[in-house]
Amino acid sequence: MAVALKPIGIVHSCFKEKFGIPRQAGLVREARATLELLPPFDRPEAVRGLESFSHIWVVFIFHANCRKSWKPTVRPPRLGGNRRMGVFASRAGFRPNPLGISAVELAGLGFPDNRVLLDIRGGDFLDGTPVVDIKPYLPYADSRPAACAGYAPAPTDVRLPVIFSPPAQAACRRHRPADGTDLQALITALLQADPRPAYHCKSPGGRVYGFRIFDLDVHWRLQEAAIVVEAVVTAPAEGRDPARRPEV
To answer: Which of 47, 67, 86, 220 is deepest in the core (most CB within 10 A)?
Structure first.
């Protein structure tokens, strides 16, 4: 029996395009987002008791990856984009059913103006992501410290020093996100998680990359043994295609 999924909420996130989003949830706690429940699910009693949980599972739709067809194999970025793995042996967004699941920190619940808002941290959601379910995270059942992670045993971060040019540092002080995010700390954490494709990680530095958070474009490059943020500038009003990996 086929069941049509209906979004119960939407994520308001700082990530305006896919490049730059952490590869997995929980890697960048500085990434804050708001999950807003949609009618008719926006009732306070629907989340009664959820405040006692520190983390939740969010089941969502990869809305920027929807395709009419699917392929049985994908090229995981962490394998350099050259090796194929089965789609069900990956967490790629291009799937027969474009569903994802992320464990995130629940930092609070709010009910302003008859709305139901969940303050979440450590998410990996593109802005506007439709949510189809929320479940409490149960450490005794959901955590498996001894589990084998196959070809993805550890994060692919580089943990290099992140240096801000004086103009970029001044821009971080000047632009203050409404949710109170420390912009410089967020950019630092995102870059230390290394958003580059794996096949770029072996190439020499100097190439300039860009990603968008909030209404800002962040321009950066790998230079010797550090990541240098060259500019943090207001994004063009016309925007960019969120499905395109931006480079400047």
So the answer is: 220
Q: Please tell me the pTM assigned to this model.
A: 0.88
Amino acid at 165: S
β-partners of residue 131 are: 9, 60
Q: Residue type at 27?
A: L
Output the pLDDT for position 156. 72
Q: Is 103 exposed, middle or buried (0-12, 13-18, 19+ CB in 10 A)?
A: middle
Please return the burial class of 135, using the count of CB atoms within 10 Å of its CB with bins 0-12, 13-18 and 19+. middle
| 159 HSE (CA, 13 A, CB side) | 3
**Dist. CA 195–CA 211, nearest whole Å:** 9
Beta bridge partners of 117: 36, 110
Q: What is the DSSP letter of 235?
A: P
Assigned token pair, 242: 């969120």
